[in-house]
Amino acid sequence: MTLVQMQPRPASADPVRRTLVEVMDAAGLQVCDDMSVEVALSVMAAARTGRLVVCDQDGQCTGLVTRTELTAVRDSSAYTDRVRLRDILGEHGWFTSPVATMAEAERAMCRLRLGALPVVDEQGSGLGILAPSR
Length: 134
Description:
19% strand; globular
């Protein structure tokens, strides 16, 4: 798996030992977990992005949602306009540290079948997103 590198950064001598700070994408849009699914889809459309980092009221990252996931929720029979992002996060609480190595993150993403992985600091604030290149 090749990871996205948005800005040129000095590479470590050993690419396997490069930390996520060297390869992560900018955090992108961060939204509050009390946002409705419809509003989140509108924000994604306006920003032309396929994912949002979700944070709680304290600014701590609680997960990541994609357009595909939100569309599936909206199109389900159980959907109402009262469904909030916090209601659907479920198993999306996977994060990694900026000091983790690229190899560690790649293994986790493959094992967990994640399309993207939020990178958070010690306080839980979103620093970036690790995603496979297209």
